[in-house]
Amino acid sequence: MFALAGISLLAFACQKNENVQDSTPEESQLMKQFLATTYGFLPESIVEHDHCFVAEGDQCFHKEDFWNHYSSGADGEFSVPEAGSDELAADRKHYRWSYLVTKTKNVTIRILPGVPTVWKNAITQAVIDWNALGGGLTFSIQYASSPKFGVVNVSMKTMSNEDYAKAYYPTSNGYPGSDLFINPYFNNILSPNSKTGVIAHEIGHTIGIRHTDSGDGSLITNVSTSCKNNPDPESVMSAEGDFYYGFTTCDREAYKALYKK
After folding, report:
1. Smallest Cα–Cα separation from 165: which of 185, 189, 181, 187?
2. pLDDT at site 22
3. Whole-prediction pTM value?
């Protein structure tokens, strides 16, 4: 929501909410068109599920209260022209989502029952790596029996065998993405290092960082010229790549540009 082995990256699947009313086909089409035109997703990359849309395999958008959550522009100094507009150089690389985490400086990764030890270890290492960047957010792990509002709730969820995990972006409420789902299909397939990369990538989505080198979203402008104008194929937020080498220099710059200490 950093694909491994060229597979569409992880995004976030949608959790069933019995209180959500199904949208009409016409409204669903309007929502898909809005995501494509406003946020730069290819229309064919947007897949509709019962209660959400998943774009690019790992970026999820609730249907419930859709227009309130996603239709307002982002406020603040980081608002820039949309990807693909004439104002942007075609080769600028690091991008952000419309909303950031603004209500808290402490991002809690809340691990729910059923997450295997191999993934708990990956979560622990990914949190260590994020904290080592020294940006404006602090990440911590919490074990709990049930989900909680305002934190990133981590659980297992069966999904396509092409998706390692999925995560939600922040919405207009100012809190991190509400859920990070891990596909149990990969419990015994991915290496420990690759699992860490998957989690590090998805945590990036929960705080509003989009795929590197995709051209989708708003350019993160207040980074070095090199990071704006050169590819960053080993980025943690890359949508493709069978690797995890830790965060690149430009990953660090992009994160600190969004979340200053």
Report:
1. 181
2. 55
3. 0.72
